[in-house]
Structure prediction request, 65 residues.
Amino acid sequence: MDPVRQDTPPITPAVPLAKQLAILIAAFAAGALIAELFGAANLGTALGVGQIAFALALVFVLVRG
Prediction:
């Protein structure tokens, strides 16, 4: 059996989960708010823009992390 190596640090995520979730929630909220401020036709349209911002932020988090 191989002994456990003591010289390697434990594996931890590059960015903590809480920070990743905060980035995603902030991107969704900011996208929806900006769409509303720029005169989205209704709340559904603004939330759709928020979803697009969320998707872009998710790609950012996945590639960076």
